[in-house]
């Protein structure tokens, strides 16, 4: 059975859990990371030298990096939900574009603000840096709003896809962080549309930012 190593409060672990829910894929999950077993132990470092969660074991196959993991699972078990990560090159490229954008742009924008306002990190209390992070975060949410208004449904098109998992988790974090939230009609409608999915309710809108 698939094994998932990482605590369920981690946003990157929840990407994997939500993907498994969409694929109706059974798994065993072990808590690793802050407050649980140390990712700096020799056993864990043998699996991921970066000491980061999540890590999966699929039989003898070991993989880390959350976006690589969800792509692997959607490809490996495509018979369970082929529409999640279609093989047609242009359709898949559009999905990959938004997954990569979430990691490279959206994640970077909210890092400082989230650590300051939610985690209350003493090292992240510079008022100007918080304001800049919030402003950039909201600007990028505006880009999502424009894209969602154009598709009228999901981030990469008319159908729910793998890209909606990291994007949905990032939006949940935006809504859960105590900052000013301008009204984005398409984003709000999208977030409620995601709420029709059991995986979203279990692993995204579950009270964990």
Please tell me about this protein's structure.
The radius of gyration is 17 Å and the shape is globular. The chain has a 4-stranded mixed beta sheet with strand order 2-1-3-4, with helices on one face. It has about 210 residues and is an alpha+beta fold. The chain has 2 domains: about 1-85, 3-Layer(aba) Sandwich (Glutaredoxin); about 85-200, Glutathione S-transferase Yfyf (Class Pi), Chain A, domain 2. The chain has helices at about 10-25, 40-45, 65-75, 90-115, 125-150, 165-175, 185-195, 200-205; strands spanning about 1-5, 25-30, 55-60, 60-65.
- Major β-sheet annotation: 4 strands, mixed
Question: What is the CATH architecture term of the largest domain?
Answer: Up-down Bundle
Number of helix segments? Answer: 8
**Basic shape:** globular
Q: Which series of helices and strands comes N to C?
A: EHEHEEHHHHHH
Strand order of the largest sheet: 2-1-3-4
Work out the helicity level: 40-55%
Radius of gyration from CA coordinates? 17 Å
CATH third-tier fold name of the largest domain: Glutathione S-transferase Yfyf (Class Pi), Chain A, domain 2
What top-tier CATH class of the largest domain fits best?
Mainly Alpha
Instruction: Give the uncertain stretches in residue-range form.
Output: none
Q: What structural class results from the helix and strand content?
A: alpha+beta
How many structural domains are formed by the residues?
2
The chain-level mean pLDDT equals 96
């Amino acid at each position: 059975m698939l094994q998932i190593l990482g605590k369920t409060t981690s946003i990157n672990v929840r990407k994997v859990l939500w993907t498994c829910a969409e694929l109706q894929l059974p798994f065993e999950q072990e808590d690793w990371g802050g407050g649980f077993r140390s990712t700096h132990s020799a056993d864990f470092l043998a699996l991921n030298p970066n000491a980061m969660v999540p890590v999966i074991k699929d039989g003898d196959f070991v993989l880390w990096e959350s976006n690589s993991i969800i792509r692997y699972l959607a490809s490996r078990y495509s018979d369970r939900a082929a529409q999640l990560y279609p093989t047609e090159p242009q359709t898949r490229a559009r999905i990959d574009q938004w997954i990569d954008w979430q990691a490279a742009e959206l994640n970077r924008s909210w890092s400082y603000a989230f650590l300051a306002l939610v985690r209350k990190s003493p090292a992240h209390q510079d008022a100007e840096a918080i304001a800049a992070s919030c402003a950039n975060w909201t600007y990028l949410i505006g880009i999502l709003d424009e894209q969602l208004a154009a598709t009228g449904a999901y981030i990469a098109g008319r159908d729910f896809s793998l890209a909606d998992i990291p994007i949905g988790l990032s939006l949940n974090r935006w809504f859960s962080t105590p900052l000013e939230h301008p009204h984005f009609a398409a984003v709000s409608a999208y977030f409620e549309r995601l709420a029709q999915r059991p995986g979203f309710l279990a692993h995204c809108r579950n009270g964990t930012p």
